[in-house]
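Work Package 3 (structural annotation) set out to generate three-dimensional models for the target panel prioritized at the project kickoff. During this period the team completed the workflow that converts sequence records into discrete structure tokens, so that structures can be stored uniformly alongside our sequence database. As a representative example, we reproduce one entry of 58 residues exactly as it appears in the project archive.
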Amino acid sequence: MKKLLAKYGKHFWIISLAITIFATYDFFYNEGSFFDILMLSALTLLFYWQGQGKLEEE
């Protein structure tokens, strides 16, 4: 599992982005929650920054 995360960990933000897109679709066409869109967008951004090395680990 560590090898998988080391090799593909920087691309996990794409999974979060796909879920965010679905939540946005659900918000506009069904009865989705705007809070879900905000939280998933923040999570996607966090994963992206972490994958790009822009966040420092202590």
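The first helix runs from residue 2 to 8.
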